[in-house]
Specification:
The chain is 21% helix and 17% strand. The protein contains 13 helices and 21 strands. The chain starts with a strand and ends in a 12-residue tail after the last helix. GO terms for molecular function: growth factor activity. This is Oxidative stress-induced growth inhibitor 2.
C-alpha cells in the first residue's frame, strides 16, 4: 500500500485492468470520503460461471436478432418474432414473446431463450437456433465480472470422467458452437454428453474467443455488498444497514453521498449506489482489498458454496464428508478397496448416484441411505430418459432391487438387523442383498453391483467416533461400521456478503435462500429482485439449475438494463469502456 497526496492510504494497483482502474479506492476501515470519487461501474456481476459469462456477452454489445433464413417450429411464436424482426430480442416485449410457452423452467424468459436457441429440444430434435448475433458496440454497457477463479466457475473444480446431465450442446453459450471447440466429438449415436473438463475448457475459451477478458477480474472474493445512498438526500444506508454489518463502514461516512457529488444514475430503480468490497488473491498469495461502486449488482454465484448438512451428532467427525471429490481422493490414495468396510452414501440425487457409481467402479461396498420411497415421482431418475442416462438408471435399478430387508434375527442371523450397537452386526454386514418382494428382480439386476444395499425411507441418526453410524427406518434402528460417509443431499448458496445472508430476498423471507425450496424472489421478465431495486439474480439462485435455462436470466437482465439506460441516455456511444 502507499499514501496519496492527501495522506490517505490507497490500494496498490491490481494486475487486472478491470480492478486496477476501477477499484482505486480508500481503505475499508476509513469512514471519510475521498475528495474525488472513483468512477461508478454501471454493472458488477458477482460470479464468473456460465451465468456471468453469458450476461457479459450480452452486455458487450452482442445483440440477438431473428435469423430470417430460419423458421421456428412454434407457429405462434414465429409469428410474433416476424412482427418485430427488425429489432433485437433484447428490445422486444419479453412478456409478450414468452406468453403461452412451456418448458422445464419456471422462469418464462428462460423458456423463451431456450426455445430460440434450441427449438423443440425437449422432443429430441436438434434444430438450429433461430437467432443471429450482431455486435453493436454502441450498446456496450461497461461492467465487471468478479469470480473466485478463472472464467467457468464451479466447473473448474469438477474432475473425473463422469458425464454431464445436460447434452454438450445444451451447455453451450450464445455465439460459439460447443462442438466447434470440442472437435465435434460424439461418444455414440444416442449421447452427446460432456465431461466437466470439456465444459470448463469450453467456457474458458469462450471468454477469449468473444473478447470478454477485459471485463473479468479473476481470483476475486466478495466480502460485502451494501447500498450507499438512496434517492433522498441525507438518508444514509438502506435496508436497516448500520454500516457495521459484514464489516461495513459507519453511517457517518456515507451520509449524504448525493449531496457530495455522487450521482445515483439508477434512480429509476430505487436511486441507490452499491458498494462491492472484497479482496483479490495474487499469485504470491497476497490478498489485495478492493472496493467498487456500482449502479446495479447481479448475483450469479451459483449454488455450490455450502453443502446441506444433516444436522446430526457426529457430522463433524473426520470420516464424514460432504463432497464427492473426497471419495475420489480416498480411492486415489488407496485408502479404500474391496476389503474395506462399506462407505455410506446419503442422498437420492445425482451427486449421490455419482458417488455410488464411483464406488462400484472401484469395487467398494456401498450402503445407500435416502428418505424417499423408490416410487416417489419426484426422484430425479424419473425425469431422465433411459437411453441418454443408462448409468443413472443402473443406480436407480439397484436402489429399487437391492434394498435392505429387516428380517428377524431367528430367520436371517447372517443379515444386519434391528439391534443396539453391536460388533457382531458390523462384522457381518453387506452380504449379497435379498431382493424385496415386488421390486425389480431377474434380468433387471443383471450387471448390477452385488455389494450394494439401499435403505429407502431411512435416515441417519448419528455418527460415532468408532466409525459406526446409526440408521433409522420406520420401525427399526440399525448400527453399521463404515469406512467413510458421504452426505450428498444438496448445496445452498452462501450469500454471507449480503445483509442477513440475503434471506430477506427469498420468496419466503423467514427462511434461508435455497435454490429449490426458497429461491430469490424476482420480477419474472427482468430478474430484478422484488425486494431490492438495482439488485438482480440469475441461475440457480432463482431456480434455474441447468445451463440450458440460466441463459434466460442473462437475456432478461440485459434487456432490462439496455432499455433502462437507453431511456436515460446513458449508453456508451463510442463503444468504449471508461472503467476497465
Amino acid at each position: 500500500m502507499q499514501q496519496d497526496t492527501t495522506g490517505r492510504q490507497s490500494y496498490t494497483p491490481l494486475r487486472e485492468p478491470a480492478l486496477a482502474q476501477a477499484v482505486a479506492m480508500p481503505l475499508l476501515e476509513e469512514t471519510t470520503l475521498p475528495q474525488e470519487h472513483p468512477p461508478t461501474v454501471p454493472v458488477v456481476i458477482i460470479g464468473n460461471g456460465p451465468s456471468g459469462i453469458c450476461l457479459s456477452y450480452l452486455l458487450s454489445g452482442y445483440k440477438p436478432y431473428l435469423d430470417t433464413a430460419t423458421v421456428h417450429p412454434n407457429p405462434i411464436l414465429y409469428r410474433k418474432l416476424q412482427e418485430t424482426k427488425h429489432l433485437p430480442i433484447t428490445e422486444q416485449d419479453l412478456e409478450y414473446l414468452s406468453e403461452g410457452l412451456e418448458g422445464r423452467s419456471g422462469n418464462p424468459v428462460a423458456v423463451l431463450f431456450d426455445t430460440l436457441l434450441h427449438p423443440n429440444a425437449d422432443f429430441g430434435y436438434e434444430f438450429p437456433p433461430v437467432l443471429q448475433w450482431r455486435r453493436e458496440k454502441q450498446h456496450h454497457i461497461p461492467h465487471l465480472v468478479l469470480g473466485r477463479a478463472t472464467p467457468g466457475g464451479a466447473w473448474h473444480a469438477m474432475q473425473g470422467s463422469m458425464l454431464t446431465i445436460s447434452l454438450g450442446i445444451w451447455m453451450e453459450l450464445p455465439g460459439v458452437n460447443y462442438r466447434d471447440l470440442t472437435n465435434g466429438k460424439r461418444r455414440d449415436v444416442t449421447s452427446d454428453r460432456a465431461t466437466p473438463e470439456e465444459i470448463s475448457s469450453y467456457y474458458r475459451n469462450y471468454v477469449k474467443l468473444k473478447g470478454l477478458q477485459k471485463n473479468f477480474a479473476d481470483n476475486t472474493y466478495v466480502t460485502c455488498v451494501q447500498k450507499l445512498c438512496r434517492g433522498h438526500e441525507g438518508e444514509g444506508l438502506e435496508n436497516g444497514h448500520t454500516g457495521q454489518e459484514n464489516g461495513g463502514v459507519g453511517d457517518g461516512g456515507n451520509e449524504g453521498f448525493e449531496g457530495n457529488g455522487v450521482e445515483c444514475l439508477n434512480k429509476g430503480a430505487g436511486g441507490a449506489l452499491w458498494e462491492v468490497r472484497g479482496y483479490q488473491q495474487l499469485q504470491n498469495d497476497t490478498h489485495v482489498p478492493f472496493s467498487v461502486f456500482a449502479e446495479n449488482v447481479v448475483l450469479a454465484t451459483g449454488a455450490s458454496d455450502s453443502p446441506v448438512r444433516l444436522g446430526v451428532d457426529g457430522e463433524d467427525l473426520p470420516f464424514v464428508f460432504h463432497s464427492i471429490s473426497d471419495l475420489g481422493l480416498a480411492i486415489g490414495q488407496r485408502k479404500l478397496d474391496l476389503k474395506s468396510d462399506p462407505i455410506l452414501v446419503v442422498g437420492a440425487g445425482l451427486s449421490a448416484a455419482d458417488a455410488v457409481l464411483c464406488a462400484c467402479n472401484s469395487n467398494i461396498r456401498v450402503l445407500h441411505v435416502f428418505r424417499k420411497n423408490v416410487d416417489d415421482p419426484d426422484l430425479i431418475f424419473k425425469q431422465l430418459p433411459k437411453t441418454l442416462y443408462p448409468e443413472y438408471h443402473k443406480v436407480y435399478n439397484m436402489m429399487c432391487s437391492q434394498t435392505y430387508i429387516n428380517v428377524p434375527p431367528s430367520s436371517a442371523s447372517n443379515r444386519p438387523h434391528t439391534v443396539s450397537i453391536a460388533s457382531s452386526v458390523c462384522a457381518k454386514m453387506c452380504p449379497k442383498p435379498q431382493l424385496a418382494a415386488g421390486n425389480m428382480a431377474g434380468n433387471s439386476s443383471v450387471g448390477l453391483f452385488p455389494d450394494y444395499t439401499s435403505f429407502p425411507e431411512h435416515c441417519v441418526v448419528s455418527f460415532q467416533s468408532d466409525m459406526k453410524c446409526l440408521i433409522q427406518g420406520n420401525n427399526s434402528l440399525k448400527a453399521f461400521k463404515i469406512s467413510m460417509a458421504l452426505v450428498l443431499i444438496g448445496t445452498n448458496p452462501n450469500l454471507f456478503f449480503l445483509k442477513g445472508h440475503g434471506q430477506y430476498l427469498g420468496q419466503d423471507p423467514t427462511k434461508p435462500v435455497s435454490c429449490k425450496q426458497n429461491p430469490i424472489d424476482i420480477h419474472p421478465y427482468t430478474f430484478e429482485c422484488t425486494k431490492e431495486p438495482g439488485l438482480f439474480a440469475m441461475g440457480p439462485l432463482v431456480g434455474d439449475n441447468f445451463v440450458r435455462f440460466l441463459k434466460g436470466g442473462a437475456l432478461g437482465i440485459a434487456s432490462c438494463l439496455l432499455k433502462r439506460l437507453k431511456k436515460k441516455g446513458k449508453l456508451i456511444s463510442n463503444g468504449g469502456n471508461n472503467f476497465i
